[in-house]
User: Which sequence fits this backbone?
């Protein structure tokens, strides 16, 4: 009895296993899969699939996947543009449908998410296909996977009818059919040729037995040359390039062209005098010389480290602070540092920017600071200081708007373009791969980002000030000895040194004073003794100082945490195919 009991349990387990395995396939059965294929004389294929489905359980409907790109038996990728014309029931009533592309297939989801169906349902899918035919030297051919081999359901009956819509009747037909899983050369199917008075010859294919899950019907039919027009090389190229999708790659080109034209109209400075004339002093506004930071910003429309270090040294030259070199050497390794000492508070002689800079440097209330103590702390003042410099240039009518505002505006345009293009492409265009939409959107927005720094445009007064700045820069880097001697100013080197830093001509400005007596600057205390002041040696020390001042004040605080057809046929071969399921 125990053996009989064990046998009953074993049989029950086997029954449960066998019946549970194909549950997904038992959601529905395809009673009939009927396909009508029409070929016109231009080589276009019209397909009507009528699928009769019996649902064993409540489902929303089916989905059908049709490949539009596949590899033929020669290993070549063949692309067939597919256009879904309609999806209806057997009474031609339109059904709720969602069509999308995923990878190499067109996915057609049929049914309403709010409605369940049971029993017998009919789905009629009409679509047209280009580039579906094969053209050989001695014949032309349609090699078509009728049902696809990826249905997780039984297909009780599959049929396919091929006819021709041509002026010249087809006389010489050859055909074959294949059934089974992908790669099978079994031909468990029937073929019947027929003749229609108005359409010439046609062929009907049908399966003998039901197709199991993942089995399908594939047909091959050939005819004589000259009936169907072979696509030209240009047409083949257009189908390979998939112009319908790839035309959107013109968007980045149009964006670049638009920004270039826009920059030429709105981003270029007005023309002033043709030649830059040498200026022997910095440009002035209302009788007051512009600051080194203003000149540096006029040159490149950007407030940077060089402008900052020039401004700090400028405060020292004007007598507001003192700079002392505190460089130390430990085990033959030099550690650079500088002490700033405030000598007096800001007054009306300083610009708004210089006043803010002086206050920010000594914000802790002490009159003495080390530059190293500002590292990671002073950075919070950079935005305000930069904004103030731009504001001063706007107030002097050198710019209509702050360069910073203009740059941010076009960066904003870039992000808006990126998001808008991405959303538009996602919702309006059905790409092979959605990454294409992302790539196109990024490329389309890039010109906005690239041109953003070039879009701030000076006014005519600003262009004139820039020309004078370039003339003064010319003087600093090409100053002649006799001219400097005639100027008879023993403070000249020191007075214009901050401008030389901002305009990046320190070494040239220092070399010009070779052999010319200059007073040693009182605002700078060197770490080594210099009995006779030598501008070139001093300029090297100042360049090191300026570099340290700029990099330290611009040093951002560290964040915490982490960041971060010609050969033998087989079932599943050729165009068409795919599969489907229920949902």
Assistant:
């Amino acid at each position: 009895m125990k053996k009989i009991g064990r046998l009953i349990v074993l049989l029950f387990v086997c029954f449960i296993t066998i019946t549970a395995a194909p549950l997904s396939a038992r959601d529905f059965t395809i009673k009939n899969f009927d396909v009508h294929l029409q070929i016109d004389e231009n080589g276009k294929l019209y397909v009507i699939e009528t699928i009769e489905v019996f649902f064993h359980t409540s489902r929303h409907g089916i989905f059908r996947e049709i490949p539009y790109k596949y590899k033929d038996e020669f290993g070549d990728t063949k692309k067939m543009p597919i256009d879904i014309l309609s999806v209806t029931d057997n009474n031609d009533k339109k059904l709720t449908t969602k069509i999308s592309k995923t990878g190499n297939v067109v996915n057609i989801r049929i049914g309403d998410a709010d409605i369940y169906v049971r029993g017998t349902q009919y789905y009629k899918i009409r679509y047209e296909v280009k580039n579906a035919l094969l053209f050989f030297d001695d014949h032309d051919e349609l090699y078509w996977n009728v049902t696809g081999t990826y249905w997780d359901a039984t297909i009780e009956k599959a049929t396919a009818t091929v006819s021709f819509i041509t002026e010249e009747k087809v006389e010489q037909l050859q055909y074959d059919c294949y059934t089974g899983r992908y790669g099978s050369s079994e031909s468990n199917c029937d073929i019947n040729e027929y003749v229609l008075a108005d359409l010439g010859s046609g062929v009907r294919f049908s399966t003998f037995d039901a197709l199991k899950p993942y089995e399908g019907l594939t047909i091959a039919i050939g005819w004589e040359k000259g009936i169907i027009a072979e696509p030209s090389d240009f047409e083949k190229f257009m189908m390979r390039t998939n112009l319908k999708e790839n035309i959107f790659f013109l968007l980045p080109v149009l964006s670049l062209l638009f920004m270039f034209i826009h920059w030429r109209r709105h981003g270029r400075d007005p023309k002033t005098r043709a030649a830059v004339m040498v200026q022997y002093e910095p440009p002035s506004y209302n009788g007051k010389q512009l600051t080194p930071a203003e000149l540096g910003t006029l040159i490149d429309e950007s407030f940077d480290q060089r402008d900052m270090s020039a401004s700090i040294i400028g405060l020292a030259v004007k007598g507001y602070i003192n700079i002392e070199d505190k460089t130390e050497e430990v085990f033959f390794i030099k550690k650079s540092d500088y002490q700033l000492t405030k000598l007096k508070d800001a007054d009306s002689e300083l610009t708004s920017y210089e006043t803010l800079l002086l206050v920010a440097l000594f914000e802790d209330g002490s009159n003495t600071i080390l530059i190293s103590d500002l590292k990671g702390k002073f950075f919070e003042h950079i935005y305000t200081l930069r904004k103030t410099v731009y504001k001063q240039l706007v107030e002097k009518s050198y710019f209509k708007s702050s360069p910073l505002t203009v740059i941010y505006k076009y960066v904003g345009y870039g992000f808006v373009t990126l998001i808008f293009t991405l959303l538009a492409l996602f919702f309006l265009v059905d790409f092979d791969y959605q990454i294409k939409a992302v790539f196109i959107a990024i490329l389309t927005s890039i010109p906005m980002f690239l041109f953003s720094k070039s879009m701030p445009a000076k006014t005519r007064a600003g262009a004139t000030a820039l020309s004078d700045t370039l003339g003064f820069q010319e003087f600093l880097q090409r100053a002649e000895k006799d001219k400097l001697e005639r100027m008879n100013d023993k403070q000249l080197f020191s007075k214009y040194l901050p401008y030389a830093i901002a305009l990046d001509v320190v070494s040239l400005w220092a070399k010009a004073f070779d052999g010319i007596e200059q007073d040693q600057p009182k605002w700078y205390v060197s770490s080594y003794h210099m009995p006779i002041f030598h501008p070139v040696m001093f300029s090297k020390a100042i360049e090191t100082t300026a570099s340290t001042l700029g990099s330290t004040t611009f040093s951002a605080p560290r964040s915490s945490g982490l960041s971060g057809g010609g050969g033998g046929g087989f079932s599943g071969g050729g165009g068409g195919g795919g599969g489907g399921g229920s949902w």
In short: Residues 95 and 572 are 28 Å apart (CA to CA).
